[in-house]
Each structure stands twice: as C-alpha cells, then as structure tokens.
Write a structure and sequence with these properties.
The protein contains 6 helices and no strands. It is mainly alpha-helical. The longest helix has 29 residues.
C-alpha cells in the first residue's frame, strides 16, 4: 500500500469513528438512513472506479472482464441502496445487516485464502470478518429494540474503523524480482 492508500485508510477510519458517534447521538431511524446513504455512495463510487479501471486498463488484461462485471454489480447495488429510503425501515435495517454479514463472510474467506498462501497478515482480516458476522447476528437477534440495534451497529463500525487505521500503519511485504 502506498502513502496515498495509507492516508486514505486513516481518513476513512476517522470518518467511520465520527459516523458511529453521530449515529449514536441521532434518532435511530435517522441513523440507519444515514448509514444507507453512506453505504450507497461508497458502492456507487467503488462501482464507478472499477468501471473506469476496466475501460482504461483492465480491458487489455487477461481476465479483465471480471472488473467490468464486478463494477456493474457494485454500481447496481449502490443504486439499489439509494432506492431503499422510501420503504419501511425494517427492510432497510435487514438490508444493512445482510451487507454486513456478506462483508464478514467475504473477509473470512479472503483471510483463509491468505493463510493458505502463507501470508502472516490473515489474522486481522479474519477477526474483522468474525466481528462483522457477530454484529449481523446480534443485530438480527435484537430487531425489537432499535436503540440496541444502533448501539451494536455502531460498535461494529468502530471496530471496522480501528481495523482500517491499524491496516494503514502495517508494513507490507514487498517482493523483489531479481
């Protein structure tokens, strides 16, 4: 990870910490709308970034079409998340928990693949995936209390922010080809 990526991870971590504190202060219904808005904007920006990467570089690479498909799917999820503001909030909460659980499963699978390849940095990703799954399950079990949902979700967001900041200050393994 370069210097710009490290600074970006620290800024994202700080913004996630601020967001979690803001969400705890605000009304729980408004908090989940803010979380959905930020998630949709992040998905839209990621989708657009992947599509730009495809059209500028990846179309000339082996397996580059995967970037096109992933970019389109992520962009579609971003648009879909933006449309969720007009439906009852329970569906929005379930959608956010589903994305949290999906992210947790993805982190766990990525960590296991990293471990299989012999890298030592798999433990942090694995713990992040386990915490994301735990947050999703705890929130699913406490659907009756919206305030408890916000607290659990914000604690998971705080943990993710700390992981972002830790990963920014981690040394990368550099492979030199001689």
């Amino acid at each position: 990870m370069g210097k710009i990526g490290r600074v970006r991870n620290v800024i994202i971590g700080i913004l996630m910490i601020l967001l979690s504190f803001i969400m705890m202060i605000l009304d729980p219904e408004v908090s989940f709308l803010i979380a959905a808005l930020i998630l949709s904007l992040a998905l839209l920006v990621t989708g657009i970034r992947l599509l730009i990467f495809y059209f500028t570089m990846a179309r000339h690479m082996v397996g580059g079409k995967v970037q096109l498909y992933v970019g389109l799917i992520v962009f579609d999820f971003g648009i879909f998340t933006l449309t969720l503001t007009n439906i009852p909030h329970i569906y929005l909460i379930l959608y956010l928990l589903g994305t949290h659980a999906f992210g947790g499963v993805f982190n766990i699978l990525h960590a296991l693949e990293t471990k299989r390849n012999g890298a030592s940095s798999w433990k942090l990703k694995f713990s992040q995936g386990v915490v994301n799954l735990l947050v999703a399950v705890l929130c699913l079990l406490s659907l009756g209390s919206t305030q408890l949902l916000v607290v659990i979700y914000c604690l998971g967001l705080l943990y993710s922010a700390v992981v972002h900041i830790i990963s920014a200050f981690r040394k990368d393994a550099i492979v030199y080809i001689q």
